[in-house]
Amino acid sequence: MSERVPAIKLVMLPKDTNALGTIFGGVILSNIDLASAVEARTVAPHRYVTKAMREVEFHEPVFLGDIVSFYTETLRIGRTSITIRVSVEAERWGALGARPGLGYGERVKVTEAEVVLVAVNDQGRPVPIRPEPQQV
User: Fold this and answer.
1) What percent of the chain has pLDDT over 70?
2) Would 23 disulfide with which of 46, 62, 92, 100, CB 3.0-4.6 Å?
3) What's the whole-number mean pLDDT along residues 89-105?
4) Is 2 a domain residue?
């Protein structure tokens, strides 16, 4: 059985924190967007823009020092769009403000989302993800 490989993996730094000392939700959303783009580029080498993020629900906070992994899976490939699920997990490593008794290296599911991206050309117009069949 092969081990899952994240599209991106980051350590959360002080610049990522809000006034409560946890990581801004917007930082996580931004990285979900980046991870989905990484996955889309493995399907076809286009420029992509984000059309929608669906069903984003935060389950657990992310703390300073957590190692956060963004796992991706292609769900659907349309003519010009691609839908990707991004699952986010945090690995706890001595986070300040974390729950008492929190184990080092504990993995928790933070959130997941479905991201819809559209392949575009240099003018920002949608283009087919895969070559279209030739008309005879």
Assistant:
1) 88
2) 62
3) 67
4) no
